[in-house]
Amino acid sequence: MIHHSPLPDVEIPDLPLTEYVLAGGVGQPGKPALIDGASGRVMTYGELDDAIRSLAGGAVTTINPAYTQAEVHHQLADSGARILVTVAPLAAMAVRACEGTAVTEVYLLGETSEADGTMAVRALSALAGRRWPRMS
Q1: Residues in Cβ contact with 128 at an 8 Å cutoff, skipping those fewer than 6 apart
Q2: How far apart are CA 7 and CA 108, in angstroms?
Q3: CA–CA dist 45, 108 (Å, integer)
Q4: pTM reported for the whole predicted model
Q5: What is the C-alpha separation between 114 and 121, in angstroms, rounded?
Q6: How far, in Å, are 32, 87, 121 from residue 110 at the CA level?
Q7: Coil, strand or helix at 88
Q8: C-beta separation of 44 from 25 below 8 A
Q9: Using one digit for the tens of pLDDT, what is the confidence trace for 108-134?
Q10: Separation of alpha carbons 67 and 41, rounded Å
């Protein structure tokens, strides 16, 4: 059964998501773009733009965090991934899942300490000569 909203259809622009999101901060690089509700940390549109551009260029395949090591391994091998970005609680399993795949580097997101076999995702932008902005 198809349900129809009583509201008018939402107009979806024909442009990349990044461009659409960053349009809200054009000419206002200091305007808050992201606010972490739990901590109150803020990332401005200027910082978000820098962060996006410092990591742009890769194809993304998402992995369900509930996957087993074997399922993660299969997806990494099937996608041909060369870099894996994960979070600290999943890092050890992720590193093991990379064995026998094309993945050569594992990076951690967030304000976490680095685990064995991983680097902070901010290192990616440092390699490109850019600083990953911290949410203030």
Answers
A1: 54
A2: 41
A3: 23
A4: 0.57
A5: 10
A6: 19, 7, 8
A7: helix
A8: yes
A9: 877 555 566 677 776 666 554 444 344
A10: 30
